[in-house]
Structures are given as C-alpha cells and as structure tokens.
Amino acid sequence: MTRGQFVSWVAKPAVFAVLLVPLGLLSYDALTGGLSANPIEDLLHRTGRWGLKILILSLAITPLRRVTGWSILVRFRRMTGLFAFFYLCLHFSIYLGLDQFFSLSEIVADVAKRPYITVGFVTLMLLVPLAITSTKRMVKWMGGKRWTRLHSLVYVAAFGGFLHFLWAVKADTRDPTVYGLALALLLAARLPLWRKQPGSRRVPA
Fold this sequence. Notes:
Blueprint (H helix, E strand, L loop, with lengths): L2 H30 L6 H30 L8 H23 L4 H10 L1 H18 L3 H7 L1 H8 L1 H17 L4 H21 L11
Helix pairs in contact: 1-2, 1-3, 2-3, 2-8, 2-9, 3-5, 4-5, 5-8, 6-7, 8-9
C-alpha cells in the first residue's frame, strides 16, 4: 500500500469517524435522556463548543506541519475545516428551529437584546464562502493569491467565535479564555508566513 493509498483508504476515514464522535455522543444523549435539565441549551452549547474546537484544530494543522515536517497533515485540513462548519451550522440551526421556532420577530428581539448572537451569525456567514471555495477546483479558478487572501478570513471567523462564546457565558470565562489563548498562539505562529514578501507565487497553507 502506497502512502497516498494509506491516507485515502485508512487515515482519512479514521479522521472522518473521529470527527463524527461528538455528533454520535450528542445524538445518543438526546435519544436516551442524557441531556441536561435544559436540553435545548445543552444542544446549543455542545454543538457550538465542538464547532469552535474543531475550527481551532483546523488552524493548528499548518503550524504543526511546519514544526514536525509532516506534510501529510495538509491532507486533513479541508476535512477538519468543513466539519467545524458543519457543527457551527448545526449550532445555528438548533437556535433557529428549537430555540426560536423560526420566528423572525423573536430572533430580531433576541439579537437586539443579546449582541453576542449577532457576532455568532456574522462569524457563520464569514465561513460560508470559505466552505464553498475549499475545493482544489476553486483554488485554480480563483488563483492562489486571491484564494489565500479570502481564506485568511478564517482567523477573523475564529476570533468572532471566541467573542461569541465569551459573551455568551457571561460569568465563567475559563473555557473561552483557553480557546482565546490557543487562537492567540496560532496567530503568532502565522506571523512569519504573513510577513513573507508578496511576490511569492506559493500558496501559503
């Protein structure tokens, strides 16, 4: 078995299965009564946290590849990023359907009362074009420079997710603080790449 075959037939399916574990656990708890006394809030918190965790994990792939020299890690970046988008879409869908019952007036009132919801919505909208343009065909169609510039917005989205989480928890800020520190470290790790001369034709990871 070649290295490429191992990645395609073994490693990628294994990572795919691992990234589905949070959904499986959430579904199991929902079906067996394992959620908290406020099940909708529990669903919102768990999907939102997993979305942010996986998003930060996707941002960690490039620095980890640079440190370890394991170029194979790049093969998992797109999958990881799309799973983060999936969990965040699920988070937003639960808010729209189960929490607000698709009531536009209730959503508008909620946004006016709780600005962190606006930040969360903007964050999700920033991720939409990144998910759409994540394929190799889109990279070729857009050109490496424009594609890289667009996908740098993932750091803005990650910061928006952190801010949304921080404002949502209000009192106990320990968890969002950990996520914020992880994001700050990843931003610091990216600085050497962003400082490279703009004339390079290489597409930064």
